[in-house]
Amino acid sequence: MASEKTIEIDTRLGRRVIDPATVINFPRGLAGFEDEHEFTLLPIRPDAPLLILQSMRRPEVGLLVADPYSFLESYPVMLGDAEQQLLKVDKSEDTAILVTVTIPEGKPEDAMLNLTGPIIINHHTRIGIQIPQGFEGPTQVSLHAPSEASAN
């Protein structure tokens, strides 16, 4: 079902037309952006594993994110009862997991997945939260190092 109205916003990728049905509500905000609650996901280019998690309100707030499973064989995420209730999730298939990506200026070959604060989004309710993790293992993994195929 198509939305009645679209929204135009300024983003890190330029001006974009957004379908309101794609807006994700983050009741707690995100680390460092606790006052930002509405975001949308913007593809950088078709079929690319990287996206921009773009604030609907502030063009300068756009986080580079990726599906960690495009790069890792294993990435366990702990989701407690309170988080499941907030997300209104019954089964893990209803969620997408994203992690932020850091690319040092001028050094794209040093891009890293940040594994300490995954972002979980319920596809159906369009609710998202960021959940700090306390797992043992690497806190960052290189996007370009195939030998680092899992994070435990």
Structure description:
With 152 residues, this protein is mainly β. It is built from one helix and ten strands; from the N terminus they run E-E-E-E-E-E-H-E-E-E-E. Strands 3, 4, 5, 6, 7, 8, 9 and 10 form an eight-stranded antiparallel β-sheet that branches. Strands 1-2 form a two-stranded antiparallel ribbon. A hairpin with a 6-residue loop joins strand 5 and strand 6. The longest helix is centred in the middle third of the chain and has 7 residues, at 81-87. The radius of gyration is 16 Å and the shape is globular. Mean pLDDT is 87; it is low at 147-152.
Summary, kept brief:
With about 150 residues, the chain is mainly beta.
Q: What's the helix count? A: 1
Mean pLDDT: 87
Shape: globular
What is the tally of beta strands?
10
For the largest beta-sheet, the strand count, sense and barrel status come to: 8 strands, antiparallel
Structural class: mainly beta
Strand proportion, as a percent range, falls in 35-45%
Radius of gyration, in angstroms, nearest whole number = 16 Å
Our measurement of the CA-to-CA distance between the termini, rounded to an integer number of angstroms, reads 40 Å
In sequence order, what are the helices and strands, one letter per element? EEEEEEHEEEE
Approximate helicity band: under 10%
Low-confidence stretches: 147-152
Oligomer: single chain
